Amino acid sequence: MDFRTVNPGVGFPNLRVLSLGCYVFSYKWQVDWIESLGHQNGRGGLEELYLKDCPIMWEARVHSALDDSITELQTANGEVIQISNEGYPTNQSLQLPDDLSGLIEVSFPLRWSGVLDHWANSTLSSTLKTFVMGSEPWGRGPLRGVATIARGHAGVVAIRAFQYRSRPGALDRTGR
Question: How far apart are CA 13 and CA 175, in angstroms?
C-alpha cells in the first residue's frame, strides 16, 4: 500500500501509535513517511511504533521494466501534489509470463541498519517512547523482537538489536 495516497499532503497528523503487520519496505519515502506521523498530536510525533513481520525487499526479479511515471493527487485544500512511482512494478509486470527466461534483476538500497540509524537521528527519536520490531509464528505466541529502543534523560540512548532464541540450543546474536 502506498500510504502517500492516504490523506495526501497531510498524512495522519494526530496519530500517536502505528502498528504495521506484513508491510514490505523498499523505498526511502516509507521511512520518511513514518517519521512524519503525528506532528500535530500535542506530543510532537509518533509515540509508539510496532512492526510485525515487516521485511525490507532489497532485491527482486521482474519480467518487464519498472514504472517511472508520476501520480498527481489533490489535497483537501485543493493543492495538487505529485508522487513518483519510480521503481514500482507496472500492472503489466505483475502478470506472470509463460517464459521466465528474461527476468530483470532489480536492487533496492534500503537496509534496516540505515533505517534504524535514520530514525535514531531524526525527530522521531525525541517522541518515540516504544519501538518493537520482530516476527511471530502465526497464532503461536508473542512477538519475538529483533529491535527495541532504549531511552534516557536526553532522548534516545540506543536502538538495540537482538534475537530471541527460536528453539532450545539455538544461539542468539551474542553467541550465547
Answer: 43
Indicate if 65 and 146 belong to the same structural domain: no
User: Does 22 share its domain with 42?
Assistant: yes
What is the C-alpha to C-alpha distance for residues 67 and 86, in angstroms, rounded to an integer?
A: 5
d(CA 162, CA 131): 13
pLDDT tens sequence across 100-112 = 777 888 889 999 9
Q: Can you give the residue range of the structural domain that contains 140?
A: 1-58+109-176
Residue 67 has pLDDT above 60, yes or no: yes
Contacts of 63 (CB under 8 A, 6+ apart): 93, 96, 97, 100, 102, 103, 104
Provide the whole-model pTM: 0.72
Residues 122, 164 within the same domain? yes
